[in-house]
Amino acid sequence: MHLNDTKGYKIFRVVNIIVMILIVIATFLPFVNIVAQSFSSERYITAGEVFLLPRGFNVDTYRAVLQNQRFWIHYRNTIVYTVVGVAIAMFLTTLLAYVLSKPKTRLKGKGFWVGFAVFTMFFAGGIIPTYIVYNNTLNITNTMWAVVFPLALSIYNMLIMKAFFENLPTALEEAASIDGMSTYGIFLKIILPLSKPILATMTLFYAVAYWNAWFQAFMFLNEWTLFPVTLFLRNLISGATATGEAAAAEAGSTQIASNVRSVAMFLTVLPIIMVYPFVQKYFVSGIMLGSVKE
Amino acid sequence: MEIDSQVPGGETGRIGNNPETGIASAQGAMSVEEYQEKLKRTEVSKFESVRKSLRKDWQLYTFLILPVVYLIVFQYLPMIGNVIAFRRFVPGGSMLGQEFVGLRYFEMFWNDRTFWRVFRNTLTIGGYTLLFNFPIPIIFALLLNEVKSIKFKRFVQTASYLPHFISMVIVAGMIMEMLSASGIVNQVIEWFGGNPTIFLQRAEWFRTIYVGSEIWQRTGWGAILYLAALTNIDPNLYEAAAIDGAGRLKQTWHVTLPGIMPTIITLLILNIGNFMNVGFEKVFLLYNPLTYETGDVISTYLYRIGLGSANFSYATAIGLAQAVIGFILVMGANLLSRKLTNRSLW
């Protein structure tokens, strides 16, 4: 606090803090409302009486959803897609980021390769040709690969990682090379151990992307047994029963109760909210690493 | 700030400066034949040096194989698949289509009234998004920067990122719950004596809902780069300004804003480049036939006619046109920024 602050500035600071508090409240409000609905009985929700606190508190909805086998099939699918997807994505991203981080004296045609990758950020194939390639050429629709591959190499993530590799000291690598260590050896024994922070950040970025993805599943999957929980949720909230038997069977009718939707939403978002406080600093450091490169 | 300085084709076709042939120094008195001879030798030696590098450093080059195969199959193959915008595609047939039909599908959308409606909607929604979602993170960052308590500042910042990590399905679900007849928005309206409105069924509300939820989702995350740039401003500049008699407002105007200007410009280029890419997922989750009039955008329309009604070629033509416009916008914004401010992404 500066003593020479003008009166106007002091007022501004008080108002500013109030604005900040309002922003925080606005950020959390929708989540709190969903949690309140998830513990409320449907009667109070439809009457418009559930705001921030549950009315007619009960855990029956949770019990019903948690005992529902289909919900767990979708949940398990999401976990499988996330684990497999992150593994493949980390593999591809690390390889490309490492080779592109080498100077052009070592990597001939570096400009071309970087351009080859970056071009895909600004010009994409489009929904329809992509669908045709997946469905007709590769024949991977209705398999988990149709969900895993679309997100398996984010060029944006790759550039962040490349910047990290470029900032690593080269001395260690050179010394190891003189000692006769192969490129594979250097990569596995020297580079990867030094890169734990960026590997952690990228793993989290990809994990969130896979956990949240629904559109690839919506477009490429027909069998409800393959649906991730996000797609199941999408069918619940849109009341679209035609896309899968799941939602219809779940509901018994086309109208699914608000408290069921709220419980499903809450359970889907829960893992993210739970790990978020602990990992958010990695997200931030990740985006910084990529940008602080004058 | 640079995202990357080596983007497309930076060093192809550079044949001089090769110490073995010394072509850069020997350009003086040389006949055409001699020059061509040198040129050939340079090319040979360039090829030679690539070969040598491949032999010596082959392990490094193997790192390229899988990612490049991935990019070819999952990015470039669909790009090639765009040729069906010019060729008639038959479901089950070749991904490259059956026969060349020229610009028939482009003429089709040119004369399609629905296309022009979704085109207008895309521009309107994209415009509003740019208008609100570009400056609001800057204002948020500037305000947050004035918070003195580090702890409180960090708490607000951390809280504000959260929506960025929430699935679009959840976001859409929460919007639907909040805006439903018995949702909290209508509860508040009724407390104030108003009549409840089913917002998601009213075309005139669609854009407000879209842009409003974008602000909720993106402000915190969008402010990160500005906050980073703010911490990099030299504190001496503020002191100097204060000694010169500048108040807080003037300091913000003359020190803070110029300090984050490079970041502002970079992000503006990216935002303009993304102008046409109105979020497909959110529109798709939130719109319904009652709100097509204002909410239907190019990407959702082409999805419906492509995968909904199996007009693959027609939808591809629209998608290709949109992608080309988007590409031109990025390039144009980048070029303009380089001309005007000497700053660009590449």
From TrEMBL, chain A:
It is a multi-pass membrane protein. It is found in: Cell membrane. GO terms for cellular component: plasma membrane. Residues 75-276 form the ABC transmembrane type-1 domain. The chain crosses the membrane at residues 12-36, 79-100, 112-132, 144-165, 186-207, 213-233, 263-279. Keywords: Cell membrane, Membrane, Transmembrane, Transmembrane helix, Transport. The keyword Isomerase does not apply. It comes from the Bacteria. Its main location: membrane. GO terms for biological process: transmembrane transport. This is Carbohydrate ABC transporter membrane protein 2, CUT1 family. It comes from Alkalibacterium pelagium. The lineage of its organism: Bacteria, Bacillati, Bacillota, Bacilli, Lactobacillales.
UniProtKB/TrEMBL annotation, chain B:
CDD domains: TM_PBP2. The keyword Transmembrane helix applies. Residues 1-20 are annotated as: Disordered. Keywords: Cell membrane, Membrane, Transmembrane, Transmembrane helix, Transport. The chain crosses the membrane at residues 58-77, 125-144, 165-185, 253-276, 312-336. Pfam families: BPD_transp_1. The keyword Protein transport does not apply. One of its GO terms (cellular component) is plasma membrane. It is found in: Cell membrane. SUPFAM superfamilies: MetI-like. Residues 119-337 form the ABC transmembrane type-1 domain. It comes from the Bacteria. Gene3D superfamilies: MetI-like (1.10.3720.10). GO terms for biological process: transmembrane transport. Its main location: membrane. It is a multi-pass membrane protein. Belongs to the binding-protein-dependent transport system permease family. PANTHER family: BLL4140 PROTEIN (PTHR43227). This is Carbohydrate ABC transporter membrane protein 1, CUT1 family.
